[in-house]
Amino acid sequence: MAIKRLGYDPIDDDAELVRTRREEDFAIDTGGDTLEKLVQYALYALAAVIGIALMVGIYAILGPVGIVLLIVGCLFVWAIKWSWLFFLK
Predict the structure, then answer these.
(1) Domains of the chain: total
(2) Residue 36: which domain range?
(3) Is 67 exposed, middle or buried (0-12, 13-18, 19+ CB in 10 A)?
(4) I need a labelling partner for 27 at 20 to 30 A (CA). Which of 2, 40, 47, 87 fits?
């Protein structure tokens, strides 16, 4: 990603060499980034739809009390994880 943005590899290439490069040395952007972003947003939307469908399915199976217990259990696991990471410092 840094190579695309800068036009050179900051680790390998010398800065003086980069300043002397001509415009023709850079590759023409074919719009691949746009397609990558579109695919990324589509996957985010798909993940959201799947998540909502799972929540509706779990609600249908467990009911409102089961959902509350599931959320409380997730919050409990999340709190244990962060407290463990805090104590590791």
Answers:
(1) 1
(2) 2-88
(3) middle
(4) 40
Find the angle CA(51)-CA(56)-CA(57) to the nearest 5 degrees.
95
- Single-letter residue type at 28: I
Which residue reads 């909502």 in tokens? Answer: 52
Length, in residues, of the chain: 89
**pLDDT tens for residues 43-81?**
999 999 998 998 888 888 888 888 888 889 989 999 988
How far is the C-alpha of 30 from the C-alpha of 7, rounded, in Å?
15
Yes or no: say if 20 and 10 are a contact pair by the CB < 8 Å rule: no
Q: For the purposes of burial, counting CB atoms within 10 Å of the CB of 13, is it exposed (0-12), middle (13-18) or buried (19 or more)?
A: middle
**pTM higher than the cut 0.70:** no
Structure tokens at 58: 């779990």
